[in-house]
Amino acid sequence: MKILLPICVLLIPIILLSCKEDSSNHQSQVATANVVSRTTDTFSLSDYYDSLVKTIPPNCKPILGHRFEIVGDFNGDGKLEKLKEHYVSGVSRQETNKSYENLNGMEFLQALVFQKKPISYLLDDNRTVDTLFATTQGVHIGLSYAKNEGDLNGDKTDELSYVVEWVQESNLNTWHVVTFKNGKWIELLSFDIWDWQLNELRQGESLLKKVGKNKVQIIYRNDRAEKDTMMVTLPCSI
Question: How far apart are CA 87 and CA 61, in angstroms?
Fold first, then answer.
């Protein structure tokens, strides 16, 4: 479903809002672009990663890693739900680790993650809201950020922000804002950020702030690769 924006936003010569699928596709492509450039038609990406895995030292040990837990009233029933992050191997269909001890080099982590075909999602313990799939593709290790943003668009439900943690050399990433409506999760807004901006969040800065009825202020990465600020009007109904 299309999200209508005010003319003042549409006139800005950058594309901030995008569908979730397009953002995920872009980031998953970025996450593997460097290694793809080093492969040939006769030596596939899978072969390249397989060769790297064979050289990993035996003292490399898996570390489960952090899982986000977000509490909020996401379906508007007046009760709190608890969404728990899950990071699952698409091969074994079991919860899997995000990092490793005694593993040096991003390419080795990319290789191990690639073999898992991981899936990242948030699941409500009581199943009162549907599963929120953050991404089902690309070389990633779950979420690097997730937060209950409160009711941003005035529909009496809490909205949720999240950022996927891609295993990549690039610092480019995408911030997603979603809402639960009519039994499913819908993306309200997404915008480009730098990964290093997430460090500022830990120091108290916010990249998303409600400033009025259906209005939010975002801090994003503009087309000049600079940090910029914009006011965005969210739809009150979808």
Answer: 17
What are the residue ranges spanned by the domains of the chain?
Answer: 19-196
Neighbouring CB atoms inside 10 A of 103's CB total 18
Cα 133 to its chain centre, rounded Å, is 9
Mean pLDDT computed over 67-77: 96
Task: Write the CB contacts of 23 (distance below 8 Å, at least 6 apart in sequence).
Answer: 174, 176, 190
Check: pTM over 0.90? Answer yes or no.
no
> Is the confidence at residue 18, as pLDDT, over 90?
no
Query: From residue 211, how far is each of 110, 162, 199, 202, 208 by CA, in Å?
Result: 40, 20, 23, 21, 10
Q: How many CB atoms lie within 10 A of CB 216?
A: 21
- Joined together, the tokens standing for residue 103 give 């593993």
Per-residue pLDDT tens digits for 123-159: 998 889 999 999 999 999 999 999 999 999 999 999 9
- The DSSP output letter for 234 is P
**Kind and range of the H or E element at 141?**
strand 140-150
**Rounded to an integer, what distance in angstroms lies between the CA atom of residue 203 and that of residue 179?**
26
Question: Cα–Cα distance between 85 and 89 in angstroms, integer?
Answer: 13
